[in-house]
Amino acid sequence: MSGKPRLTYLNGRGRMEPIRWLLAAAGVEFEEVYLETKEQYDKLIKDGFLLFQQVPLVEIDGMKMVQTRAIMSYIAGKYNLYGKDLKERALIDMYVEGISDLMQMILMFPFSPPDAKEKNLDSIKERATNRYFPVFEKVLKQHGQDFLVGNKFSWADVQLMEAILAVEEKVPTVLSGFPQLQVFKTKMSNVPTIKKFLQPGSPRKPPPDAHYVETVLKVFKK
Amino acid sequence: MSGKPRLTYLNGRGRMEPIRWLLAAAGVEFEEVYLETKEQYDKLIKDGFLLFQQVPLVEIDGMKMVQTRAIMSYIAGKYNLYGKDLKERALIDMYVEGMFDLNELLMTHGYQPAEKKEEHYANMIDKTENRYFPVFEKVLKDHGKDFLVGNQLSRADVQLLEIILMAEEWKPNVLAKFPLLQSFKARISNIPTIKKFLQPGSQRKPLIREEDVPKVIKIFY
Predict the structure, then answer these.
(1) Which stretches make up the GST C-terminal domain (chain A) (predicted)?
(2) Which of A130, A216, B165, B174 is the most exposed place for a label (fewest CB within 10 A)?
(3) Which of A66, A69, A78 sits opposite B69 (nearest CB)?
(4) ipTM of the complex, rounded to two decimals
């Protein structure tokens, strides 16, 4: 037993990727177990590992944690990435929830039927450009600080960085109207723990491909 | 300015109801503004009140808070309904996230088009009886205490009571196989602030009526 958190999920981004980002940003090393077959997943359920029969699962500090948000709140709290008081936490929570709604669209995109893909891509571009990115551009412009909340690195910065890169993979010019976000992206890329995570060989997972989609459908088939 | 939190939403449950429950359980009085037309909603957006152009909106302690989970975490933290430490919070968060998933099914059932209702109902009841309720029945059985976490009232207890009552509206005997949830329901319903909220005349909202669904959809789409 290494004492490191252990992550159980598919070998791909999905709902586990934000957790990988946050642990990495906090400088926490972790182990991973990859689900490859339905049998493996069914066994996890049968053995009582998954509170609601779902992954992500993160074994950390003696707990078998499930539910992405619960896991991330715990990690953020433990590693001081959750602001200094209740009001800063409220801001971080609001920002993270908004970004999470945008990331949900990206998460679901590979599973859209072929004839809906173009429309869904347009929706992602529209939401990023008109609903979400303007908010963070304005936050950064108004306080002029490097980080979104309380002049200190937090969960919100990590999540926004992840979202920017994820949207750019689909819409390469998405930051063209957002000079503050461009600067933010550069600054975050240079935070040592994030810089390390962005290098080849890190636990960061590649964008979902056809094989990933196939594995998801196979493992979670009813 | 009364100093009370002010809630802006439809005159109905939707995504605001868990927030009403939590404030009521905490004994906090609140005001409500009801959205009735698209124009009202568009004006809120234009005036910059809605961070991500969405409701619920809760004006509280000088903040214009949006995003249901953010709002509820703040209220729970402020009014001591979030456990005593990080690990109790982790448990509460896990339970509550499962409840949010179930709430999504229960809350959206009334909005399903006719051709999808039966399948939605079957899935909703299956998840209630086979995925979610067994977990909380077991939690109560394993520790034998009155509350889900840490032997004191938390947001998890409030949220569980809310979804139990919502599930019973769709299937009255849904607790038949869950004796501990039955006694949990009776016990939590008797907590004075919650008992008050369950009485007629409180700010608790009724189930959406089928004939009101088109009006709601028109406000947002």
Answers:
(1) 85-209
(2) A130
(3) A69
(4) 0.95
